[in-house]
Design brief:
The protein has 361 residues and is of the alpha+beta class. It has eight helices and 21 strands. 23% of the residues lie in helices and 35% in strands. A hairpin with a 2-residue loop joins β17 and β18. The structure holds adenosine-5'-diphosphate and magnesium ion (MG).
């Protein structure tokens, strides 16, 4: 094990559909991240995979063997929960070794494995402490150790970093990714944090309201989002959206609204007179104090220095749009500026079809 396969997986709590029609194959040894806003069905999905929650319908198989009828302890998975309740009266070593003790593994073997796992997580010096004498990050490592001490085909991790402060989280991201490489096992990772999803995953499955929106590599999801939801959820600050109309001008396709007249890439649909949403990421908006051929006039609302970059909020035809530019950038609010959108980094969406992309694949 293993490949984890979900077919038309569905979970309905009384009067509330948490997961709907979920088809997903998590490949053997892949790091797949389920990402989406709070309440979109990530935890429910993970709990169904590990057997803590029974699906309403659909099937789950590990390496083509259906496991839906098996209890959690008969599935070849280990899970790390968001609230990693450690046993308060047990030492770190006892916490980490607990699963093996339950499996009646001989003590010498448990000690050896606990030492090994503790070493790999950098907590070998804490083995005799109890949880209350540990920092948040140390407790997190113990929780991870408790899961990885078991040799499982798949490791399921539900927001394991969400209780850590930002700096520790960034450090643990790298460590988890390294752990995945070392263990060489299937990881299904759940987070609401798109940065974690982008930085750690082989593939990302983006969910909204219990429904899978797109499953692809981080680059693919970022550069070719399937719809406006994915486009705005992945990336920070979020992609800008401008509403307007598509027109054919000569043999060009143009996006036009009161402020913007912009050539756009070829798409899949007849553009004439069609309402459309133009998407552009803040890093693909260029800002100048002099107009150029296809620039659009805008006004600075406010500038926020981020260190090496400056985040600008600009007024463009009555809408606010964000641009990320290199530091230093100094200008007073209301300064007139001119925006150019990077032509080959534009996205078009269809507001009539739930914001599906109109950009050619
Ligand atoms: N035991 C439960 N009973 C009723 N509703 C639940 C239960 N668990 C989750 N839900 C609902 O299912 C939806 C998905 O929840 P969850 O899977 O926890 O989302 P996420 O992990 O993405 O935040 C939410 O609307 C949540 O309120
Ligand atoms: Mg959750």
């Amino acid at each position: 094990m293993a490949e984890v396969r979900l077919d038309q997986l569905r979970k309905e709590f009384v009067g509330n559909v948490a997961v709907e029609g979920l088809d997903l194959i998590i490949r053997d040894r892949e790091f797949l991240t389920l990402v989406g806003p709070s309440g979109c069905g990530k935890t429910t999905t993970l709990r169904m995979v590990c057997g803590l929650e029974k699906s309403t319908s659909g099937s789950i198989s590990f390496d083509d063997v259906p496991v839906g009828h098996l209890p959690a302890n008969r599935r070849d998975v280990a899970m790390v929960f968001q609230s990693y309740a450690l046993y308060p009266h047990k030492t770190v070593a006892q916490n980490i070794g607990f699963a093996l003790k339950m499996m009646r593994v001989p003590k010498a073997e448990i000690d050896r494995r606990v030492a090994e796992v503790a070493e790999s997580l950098g907590i070998a010096n804490l083995l005799e402490r109890r949880p209350k004498a540990l920092s948040g990050g140390q407790r997190q490592r113990v929780a991870l150790g408790r899961a990885i001490i078991r040799d499982a085909g798949a490791y399921l991790l539900d927001e394991p970093l969400s209780n850590l402060d930002a700096q520790l989280r960034a450090g643990m991201r790298a460590e988890l990714k390294r752990l995945h490489a070392d263990l060489s096992r299937t990881f299904i990772y759940v987070t609401h944090d798109q940065v974690e999803a982008m930085t750690m995953s082989d593939r990302i499955a983006v969910m909204k309201d219990g429904v899978l929106q797109q499953c692809a590599s981080p680059t693919e999801v970022y550069e070719h989002p399937a719809n406006m939801f994915v486009a705005s959820f992945m990336g920070s600050p979020a992609m800008n959206f401008l509403t307007g109309e598509l027109r054919s001008v000569g043999n060009e396709r143009r996006f036009i609204n009161s402020a913007v007249d912009q050539a756009v890439p070829d798409g899949t649909l007849d553009p004439v007179g069609r309402e459309a949403v133009l998407g552009v990421r803040p890093e693909h908006v260029r800002v100048s104090d002099v107009p150029s051929d296809h620039s659009a006039p805008a006004r600075l609302f406010i500038a926020e220095p981020l260190g090496s970059e400056v985040l600008l909020t600009l007024e463009l035809g009555g809408e606010l749009i964000k641009a990320k530019v290199e530091a230093p950038f100094r200008a007073e609010p209301d300064t007139p500026l001119h925006l150019t959108l990077t032509p080959n980094r534009l996205h078009l969406f269809d507001p009539a079809a739930d914001g599906q992309t109109l950009t050619a694949p």
